[in-house]
Amino acid sequence: MATFLETTEVTQETLKAEIHRLLDAGYRLETMTCVDLDEKTVDLLYHFQKDLQMIHLRMKQPKSENAPTISDVVFAAFLVENEIQDQFGLCFEGLVLNFSNFLYLEEEVATTPFCKYGITRKES
């Protein structure tokens, strides 16, 4: 029997308001997940937990645009957002601590390891 992840769809415009709502209700950010969907889009999943109950937010993100950071709301998100920049080549706008696509990767690395479809690296 297949199990699906129940998610709440958010947009760049509603993301931070929804995160504030969850934080106010006592949830905490567990982690984020990036899923490479096609040549133009990734899914960003935000996983929150309270008393062993998980809530997941899903945002479709065009690869051609910078994603909004949530590190200004949840400081610890800076680490996973930097990991996504390194591994998928997606940039986050306004990161509170930005490793500029080199948290794990060296400058001579030409491709993003987990990106099925190529992304040209750019400054965030």
UniProtKB/TrEMBL annotation:
Residues 10-95 form the NADH:ubiquinone oxidoreductase 30kDa subunit domain. One of its GO terms (molecular function) is NADH dehydrogenase (ubiquinone) activity. InterPro entries: NADH_quin_OxRdtase_su_C/D-like (IPR037232), NADH_UbQ_OxRdtase_30kDa_su (IPR001268), NiFe-hyd_3_EchD (IPR012179). It comes from the Bacteria. It holds the Pfam family Complex1_30kDa. This is NADH-quinone oxidoreductase subunit C. It comes from Oceanidesulfovibrio marinus.
